[in-house]
């Protein structure tokens, strides 16, 4: 596109939202993607057998449903499919714990912890979208009722705790504590670390507020719909175009859906800002497996069959130990495994497809296939007999597919307390860079990982408000 007003580099969910937001404001937008398909973490493809649709990274779209950005988008052809059970957590010597859309139904399965669940997770869900908006806009701007700030303070008092501390204080049963541990472990940080409870509380509450749905047909459908929306607004989108230096780009506004490592290589930055970027810490990696099965997973507890997401790892103590091992740079022989069975909600993916991952040290080269499958067999004896084909991606393979997954870090950077808002540097507006007209929008900016589009929206908002002149990157 000649004379583009804005160029967006990278088509992950944040880049796509930035491009659409700018185009809706009347900017002439050019979107450039290095890969052969748009989407970044939203891509889907045939990883195992012909006709089997697998998501490369993101599948479960709870935050997309709750995000103020996506709630304001009406995208053609995008249908969210809800499993009958959002989340299940199997245990060895008792029935699985199930998280239903209804918090009271969930509480009924927790026995003595029913009241605790409703008072913590249930209260977070009741706070609703205003609280979610505050959490997804940690630095503002906010457009919420005053009571939302009081609810945010209450959430923060519990959420600031380590997940292990919160679970032991709030819950008495094995089931209640295990459920919080499985939720909090999504954070990919040691569960003894501050704010790990907050991740667990938010994710659990979203199961009640909006569910944990999938995009029917694969996550690629959502990416393609955003590209179609951009083009309908007059924007241009190009694949197979890798930007190596900002000097290649000529537009008043440049928005980069890249992490600090790529940005440091692309631009000559002021020395102070460069040093601050170099202090940015990436987090642990993931080892991901995709399977084509000849039928559903043979769960020992049949109730797990209806769950879209399954947390495997046993008790709070077991999961905490697994994540502590990973944080210390070791590989747990019994890792926490996050498993998604899309067929529980979406029968359009060509059969029984399944994926799971465990957390590993940053850049690990260890094959975790046996460890992951052993954990599945622990709760679903005979699982391996159902496998027709498998596809493995360790940290190196994940980074090769998507350079933003540095060292296999699917969160765009360590999700620690320090980096909760210092993403990638401490600033009232961390999406703005020292280069005139150049903005960052990846998961390395607030509010961090997941499909919510807020980094892209914030970068586009600043670009539209900016009085900067044309970008002159070098």
Topology:
Blueprint: E1 6-9, H1 13-24, E2 29-32, E3 44-45, E4 54-55, H2 62-66, H3 68-71, E5 80-81, E6 85-89, E7 97-99, H4 103-108, H5 114-136, H6 147-159, H7 163-170, H8 174-184, H9 196-209, E8 214-215, H10 220-232, E9 236-238, E10 253-256, H11 260-266, H12 271-278, E11 285-293, E12 307-312, H13 316-327, E13 337-340, E14 352-360, H14 369-379, E15 387-393, H15 395-401, E16 438-440, H16 454-465
Parallel strand pairs: 1-2, 1-10, 2-9, 6-12, 10-16
Antiparallel strand pairs: 3-4, 5-8, 6-7, 11-14, 11-15, 12-13, 13-14
Q: Which terms would index this structure?
A:
474 residues; Polyamine Oxidase, Chain A, domain 2; five-stranded parallel β-sheet; alpha/beta; disordered C terminus; FAD/NAD(P)-binding domain; globular; seven-stranded mixed β-sheet; single chain
Write up what this structure looks like.
- With 474 residues, the protein is α/β, with parallel strands linked by helices.
- The chain has two domains: 6-45 and 218-280 and 413-465, FAD/NAD(P)-binding domain (3-Layer(bba) Sandwich), CATH 3.50.50; 80-213 and 284-401, Polyamine Oxidase, Chain A, domain 2, CATH 3.90.660.
- Helices cover 35% and strands 15% of the residues.
- It contains 16 helices and 16 strands.
- It has helices at 13-24, 62-66, 68-71, 103-108, 114-136, 147-159, 163-170, 174-184, 196-209, 220-232, 260-266, 271-278, 316-327, 369-379, 395-401, 454-465; strands spanning 6-9, 29-32, 44-45, 54-55, 80-81, 85-89, 97-99, 214-215, 236-238, 253-256, 285-293, 307-312, 337-340, 352-360, 387-393, 438-440.
- The strands form four sheets. It has a seven-stranded mixed β-sheet with strand order 7-6-12-13-14-11-15, with helices on both faces. Strands 9-2-1-10-16 form a five-stranded parallel β-sheet, with helices on one face. A two-stranded antiparallel sheet has the order 3-4.
- α5 packs across α6 (147-159), α7 crosses α9 (196-209) and α8 crosses α9 (196-209).
- It is globular and about 65 Å long.
- The protein starts with 5 loop residues before the first strand and ends in a 9-residue tail after the last helix.
